[in-house]
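Per-record layout

source: Zoogloea oleivorans
name: tRNA (guanine-N(7)-)-methyltransferase
length: 237
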Amino acid sequence: MSEEEQQHPSGPRLTSQSIRSFVLRQGRMSDAQHRFLDEMMPKVGVPYRPEAVDLNEVFGRQAPHIVEIGFGMGQSTAVIAQARPDEDFLGIEVHAPGVGGLCKLIEEGGIGNLRIVQHDAVEVLRDMIPEGSLAGVHIYFPDPWPKKRHHKRRLVQGPFVKLIASRLAPGGYLHCATDWEEYAHQMLEVLSAEPLLANTADGFAPKPDYRPLTKFENRGIKLGHGVWDVVFKRVAG
């Protein structure tokens, strides 16, 4: 590990050469996604900047703050935000089609408690989110990188989990879900090794009611595929 990857005052020093929350892909955007991206991001987008932000100021009120990392096309994000109006949600995604898709859902659903950062989640958490400020973090179905030689690219690894734990308030939770069993066991192992986190279950957790079934997940379940949830809470320390 290089010197710049060592601890610094705001938490673990993660760089663009270490863990990233995404892989650049070319995705085709529909005309509607383009339009909603252009029209809505000035209203709901939070530009990345390498300094802490006041989330109460961003949302215009005081409420618990939940971050979702890699929201894909945003369907689950929108459903959760609508079902939990007393909490504020910050979705982080780099891919423009997904950002445009969530912008469309926000506009059509009149969702007022959801904002978007279109940037690498590692840098957003490291640079913009103050320590101890989050009530929760969601990581749903991250890229499993199934080939063993690619496991180092997986998002849920010790340094990133340590960073997330530092941003959670005591009692705040980290909820991961995957349909890749081997990755699920890795998630459980990595989260269990973080001293600031404690498991809320004896191993894997039951699916919380607030996490909706996606079409992809429901199709997988019908085909006999498993889905594993891991829910840990931040302890005092």
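summary: The chain has one domain: 64-234. Confidence is low (pLDDT under 50) at residues 1-18.
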